[in-house]
Amino acid sequence: MNAEPITLSTYAMATRFELVMYGDDPIRLRAAGEEALQEIELLDKQLSLYRPESDISWINAHAAEGPVRVEPQLFSLLRLAYNISVSTEGAFDITITPLLRAWGLAGGAGRVPAESELAQALDVSGMHRVILDDAGFTVQYEKPGVEIDLGAIGKGYAIERAVEILVEHGVASALLHGGTSTVYGIGAMPDGKPWKIAIRHPVDELLKETVDLYNSSLAVSAVHGKFFEADGRKYGHIIDPRTGKPAGDTSLTAVWGPSPACCDALSTAILVLGKDWLPEMRKKFTGYEGLVVRQPG
Ligand code: AMP
Ligand code: MG
Fold it and tell me: 23 near 2, Cβ under 8 Å?
């Protein structure tokens, strides 16, 4: 095997995706890697809430008028998001967009909304307001104002699709990450050992947790990833759908297991649900493990 890795990167989903591959044939590796990164760029265009021409923007604009037919793979992603929402007691919820907007967290600088605004946003959020038809591949919203955002699962899903491409092309040893928040290790490192990933503690640099990846994924969600301050308080970018307010008690979560899309969604859900939900996660999602770091104080 070539000792020198092939390294590629791209900017998508407001973050940097990086890919490191080992193997004997650098030309084939590079071609596979470029195709995988192109797929991530395409998914960004399809899934972004912030691109007016994306499928998600189209769905958000039209699904309250009647059923909107979506491309089968996107439909499967919406179905997955729906099912994870049900399995996480609503903690993972792609309908939080009106709440994100109320909190100024959808591309804004952040602000505390009035109670009435919050009530209005809650009135148009909740996964039960999204009707999926598995036979017709359609999505429909219960009423105007409902909007979905795949921000908590999109990066993981993009990595999942990229990994499929790499594996199809015979890539057997690679590490791929999106903004360091979702990582996937294909096979093992060139020395045969699993990919070792360190999770940096949000407060104490010395408290480092490491996770081994071998054909598996790790996703991290953190309040310090994106937050704003008001009235001497920090408000994070992850909303507790039950209250409509930014989740407060937990500062960092990590979930590892087979599917990067599931790890991504679950790390967000655990940030809402807290440490006590970990045993429930292990029961419902076989093969997944997680850790929770509480907010200091
Ligand atoms: P992540 O960094 O994967 O935890 O995703 C956080 C992003 O997902 C936020 O910036 C929002 O766009 C969106 N989001 C916030 N709260 C939730 C939630 N409870 N369920 C699903 N997505 C959320
Ligand atoms: Mg996530």
Answer: yes
Cα–ligand 1 centroid distance for 35 (angstroms):
27
Q: Is 277 helix (H, G, I), strand (E, B) or coil?
A: helix
Ligand 1: nearest atom to the Cα of 149? 12
Neighbour count for residue 16 (Cβ, 10 Å): 13
Closest CA to 111 of 119, 101, 126, 120: 101
State how far the Cα of 74 lies from the Cα of 111, in Å rounded to an integer. 32
- pTM beyond 0.90: the answer is yes
Distances (CA, A) of 62 to 59, 78, 178, 210, 225: 5, 16, 30, 45, 32
Q: Which pLDDT value is given to residue 225? A: 74
Of 196, 255, 247, whose CA–CA distance to 224 is shortest? 247
- Whether 93 is in the pocket of ligand 1, judged by its Cβ within 6 Å, is yes
Query: Closest Cα to residue 179, out of 51, 32, 11, 39?
Result: 11
C-beta of 257 in contact with ligand 1 (< 6 A): no
182-187 and 195-199 strand pairing: unpaired
Burial pattern 66-105, b for ≥16 Cβ within 10 A else e, equals ebbebeeebbebbebbbebbebbebbbbbbbbbbbbbbbb
Q: Evaluate whether 153 touches 181 at the Cβ level (below 8 Å).
A: no
Q: Is 148 in the pocket of ligand 1 (CB under 6 A)?
A: no
The reported pLDDT for the residue numbered 166 is 98
